[in-house]
Write a structure and sequence with these properties.
- This protein has 9 helices and no strands.
- It is an all-alpha fold and 198 residues long.
- α1 packs parallel to α3 and α4 packs antiparallel against α5.
- The model has no long low-confidence stretch (mean pLDDT 97).
Amino acid sequence: MTSVTPWAPPALAPGTEVERLATGWIAPYGQELHLRRARDWLVHLVPDATAEARLAALTHDIERMFPGGPVLDHANTDWDDPFYLFAHSLRSADAVTVWLGGVGPVAAEVDVAEVRRLVGLHEVGGLSGGDELQAADSLSFLETLADLTAGWVTSGACSREKAAAKLQYMAERVRVPAAQGHVAEWLDWASARLPEEE
């Protein structure tokens, strides 16, 4: 394992007005950096990523910013539990759809149904950009949420073994060849940040 931070893509400026507005919308979210870096990773993997894909990456977890969403039991629930993942993904897709409905004519910059489809696929991957969005989410998770995952161990939310399994799961679900070259380094780096259990 390594403590040297692996290579990551540069941070990008919003590519459209609706993306600029979305950057402001997500700013209060505690994991806003994860969303922005997912967009950056997506554009690294797919340099000509559509406006819809960029927006989906930038908003894919946004339901967690609002109370009342699905709750995951870190200690006992499988990381690939469909009853959590689908509820989380579709609630985020709904939130983005509602937000787009409130931004006025600028929403016409994107196909709202396509943004909704991609956000809905971000945990499981899929056709026409779904796998790429999932890969970007995974790489951004390993880059930006390793300390959060370590915190689950120190707080007692789950065991070190369970936290390590989350990082492994995020790495192993990547199916995009262009992303796989980065996954092993980021997995090693994130795993090295996990504390030893007392």
